[in-house]
Amino acid sequence: MNLVRAWNPTETQLVQSTLVKAIRNSNLIGAQMQAAASNQAQGNSAVKLFLGHVHGQLVAPDEIDIAPGKGYPDCYLKVGGVSYCLEVKNTENWTPNDTNRRVLLSSTKKMRKLVSTATIDDPPAHLCCTLVHDQYLVINEVRLDFIEPTTEVNVRLEASTSQKLLTNATHYVVTIP
């Protein structure tokens, strides 16, 4: 399975014009996000705010909704009969030289399931939507990044474990009471 495909100029313009109109009509710019205790919770707040404002502004058959399950993508966007992966991020001010990581995905499991159920198209195109807010969490702008196969990304191999995996493992263990 191809995990990403290029955007063609016609669909880029269609998605852009559809979202720009929906965002402007929704009064998302100037809306305030809920403060949250963690970065993850703040991200969830951004997704809820974005969907709450934009969802009702799209005209059928175009739609946007939560992609069921944990992981990437947050949402799917359907415009002009094509369904896309849509990830919603938020940041306080956009700083072009900021090198802090913005994790897009750590597993392709959810995305592959969405493709296999035809919730998103195969191969998928990816859109990253960033809500840019001020120190009071008021949205100042929305940035849309149309991710391409040529978009530079950092890839990290991550190995993780759990108490269950460690308990069931066959390695040597010492427990000191």
Structure description:
Helices cover 27% and strands 21% of the residues. The protein is of the alpha+beta class. It has one domain (9-168): 3-Layer(aba) Sandwich (ECO RV Endonuclease, Chain A), CATH 3.40.600. The protein has a five-stranded mixed sheet. Strand 4 (126-133) and strand 5 (139-147) form a beta hairpin. The chain is globular, with a radius of gyration of 19 Å. It starts with 8 loop residues before the first helix and ends in a 9-residue tail after the last helix.
3D shape: globular
CATH topology: ECO RV Endonuclease, Chain A
- The average pLDDT score comes to 90
CATH class category name: Alpha Beta
Q: Helix- and strand-based class?
A: alpha+beta
Number of domains: 1
Spans of at least 5 consecutive residues with low confidence? none
Beta strand count: 5
Distance between the termini: 49 Å
Strand content: 15-25%
Number of helices in the DSSP assignment: 4
Major sheet: arrangement of strands: 1-2-3-4-5
By CATH, the architecture is named 3-Layer(aba) Sandwich
Radius of gyration: 19 Å
Helix content: 25-40%
Give, in order, the helices and strands. HHEEEHEEH
Question: Biggest sheet: strands, sense, closure?
Answer: 5 strands, mixed
Summarize this structure as a short list of keywords or feature phrases.
177 residues; alpha+beta; ECO RV Endonuclease, Chain A; five-stranded mixed beta sheet; globular
